[in-house]
């Protein structure tokens, strides 16, 4: 399509969407009186069967005949609350306020243990990327955690984009991936153990990966939109590592530059990713390692999400008053509800796991 058809701002608006209706009067009155559209043209004068109306950046041609019940019109507005209305001709009107912050649905906690078995279900997404859903219940739609595998490396067919989210991090499990982020300088490579915190709406692009790249991606809400960015190109000329994106800073955690420090349970050491500071305590992510027989035990925790992913070695998880046990091997993930007592005992030397805690359940 010639580009000037899309971008010529001086051109008269010449496009309209035809919306059929049985009762033109009633439908016209709904759009004009209730929604605030204005009439551009009406014909014929003696017994109108067609009306062109405009509003919210869209022109509609209401035309007598048939119904509009299969049509959904989404209108963006900042001075009406989000709601869904039905026009007299059956057309659905979705009023959307894009300026309202991202809201999370109600949390529905459960114990989710997802092992990496030989018959684990992977779905193939775009560009041959394989996805394994680590929290199929999505905890009521609040969180998504995916194990993503790119078998064949090379350039990744991505474009500059951003997400409306409250939380999103990517942890490189194995292989490497080259990425670039708005206001964070030149593209860089994430290696195994590295991670990024992608604050809300930061523009970014995945450029290239190794063969057998594996990453763990965790986000909230579980369903979030991806918007293409057509104006900003990356890398940006400005570099602002401390820029605030809706209360969060971008984090690039480089494992090789981060010391192992004692963790809150004896026998464990942790590499802190810095996500706690960058989110003012909203989230926390660390790589944890221990030798055989180290024990990590907790009663109730205070988070909306407590997520673990076994990176190497193995552990036994014991939960509840009936001490139900599960063996956790490499690739197994665990999501623990806040009220469930648990004990995790490391059963192999050089065991490492990723621990991610997000939100407060209070
Ligand atoms: Fe993205």
Count of DSSP-assigned helices: 3
Strand sequence of the main sheet, in spatial order?
Answer: 8-29-26-31-24-23-22
Summarize the main sheet. Answer: 7 strands, antiparallel
Overall average residue pLDDT: 93
The stretches of 5 or more residues where confidence is low (pLDDT under 50) are: none
Please count the beta strands (DSSP E, at least 2 residues each): 31
Report the sheet-strand fraction: 35-45%
Distance between the termini: 52 Å
Structural class: mainly beta
Which word captures the global form?
A: elongated
Bound small molecules, by name, code or SMILES, are: fe (ii) ion
Q: What does this molecule look like?
A:
With 362 residues, the chain is mostly beta strands. The chain is 5% helix and 43% strand. It is built from three helices and 31 strands. The chain has helices spanning 4-7, 24-34, 275-278; strands spanning 17-21, 38-43, 50-55, 58-64, 72-76, 83-86, 92-96, 112-114, 123-124, 130-133, 144-150, 154-155, 161-163, 167-174, 177-181, 188-190, 195-197, 204-209, 213-220, 226-228, 251-253, 261-262, 268-272, 283-290, 295-298, 303-312, 315-319, 324-328, 333-335, 342-346, 351-360. The strands form seven sheets. The chain has a seven-stranded antiparallel sheet with strand order 8-29-26-31-24-23-22. It starts with a helix and ends with a strand. 31% of the residues are buried. The mean pLDDT is 93. Bound molecules: fe (ii) ion.
Set down the secondary structure blueprint.
Layout: H1 4-7, E1 17-21, H2 24-34, E2 38-43, E3 50-55, E4 58-64, E5 72-76, E6 83-86, E7 92-96, E8 112-114, E9 123-124, E10 130-133, E11 144-150, E12 154-155, E13 161-163, E14 167-174, E15 177-181, E16 188-190, E17 195-197, E18 204-209, E19 213-220, E20 226-228, E21 251-253, E22 261-262, E23 268-272, H3 275-278, E24 283-290, E25 295-298, E26 303-312, E27 315-319, E28 324-328, E29 333-335, E30 342-346, E31 351-360
Parallel strand pairs: 1-4, 5-7
Antiparallel strand pairs: 2-3, 3-4, 6-7, 8-29, 9-10, 10-11, 11-19, 12-18, 13-20, 14-17, 14-19, 15-16, 15-18, 17-21, 22-23, 23-24, 24-31, 25-30, 26-29, 26-31, 27-28, 27-30
Bound molecules: fe (ii) ion (FE2).
């Amino acid at each position: 399509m010639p580009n000037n058809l899309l971008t010529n701002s001086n051109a008269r608006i010449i496009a309209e969407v035809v919306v059929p209706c049985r009762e033109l009067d009633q439908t016209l009155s709904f759009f004009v009186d209730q929604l605030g559209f204005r009439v551009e043209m009406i014909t014929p004068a003696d017994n109108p069967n067609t009306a062109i109306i405009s509003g919210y950046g869209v022109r509609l041609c209401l035309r007598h005949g048939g119904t509009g019940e299969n049509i959904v019109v989404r209108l963006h507005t900042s001075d009406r609350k989000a709601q869904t209305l039905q026009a007299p001709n059956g057309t659905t009107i979705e009023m959307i306020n894009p300026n309202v912050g991202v809201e999370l649905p109600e949390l529905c906690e459960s114990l989710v243990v997802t092992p990496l078995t030989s018959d684990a279900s992977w779905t193939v997404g775009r560009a041959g990327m394989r996805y394994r859903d680590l929290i199929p219940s999505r905890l009521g739609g609040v969180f998504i955690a995916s194990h993503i595998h790119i078998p064949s490396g090379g350039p990744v067919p991505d474009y500059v984009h951003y997400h409306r989210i409250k939380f999103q991090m990517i942890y490189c499990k194995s292989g490497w991936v080259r990425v670039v982020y708005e206001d964070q300088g030149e593209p860089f490579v994430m290696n195994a153990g590295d991670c990024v915190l992608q604050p809300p709406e930061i523009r970014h692009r995945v450029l290239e990966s190794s063969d057998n790249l594996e990453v763990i991606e965790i986000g909230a809400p579980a369903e979030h939109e991806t918007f293409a960015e057509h104006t900003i190109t990356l890398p940006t000329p400005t570099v602002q590592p401390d820029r605030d994106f809706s209360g969060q800073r971008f984090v690039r955690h480089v494992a090789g530059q981060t010391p192992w420090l004692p963790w809150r349970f004896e026998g464990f050491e942790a590499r802190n990713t810095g996500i706690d500071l960058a989110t003012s305590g909203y989230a926390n992510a660390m790589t944890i390692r221990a030798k055989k027989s180290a024990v990590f035990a907790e009663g109730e925790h205070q988070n909306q999400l407590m997520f673990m992913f076994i990176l190497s070695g193995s552990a036994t998880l014991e939960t509840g008053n009936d001490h139900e046990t599960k063996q956790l091997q490499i690739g197994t993930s665990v999501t623990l509800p806040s009220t469930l007592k648990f004990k995790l005992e490391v059963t192999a030397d050089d065991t490492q796991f990723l621990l991610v805690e997000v939100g407060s359940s209070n």
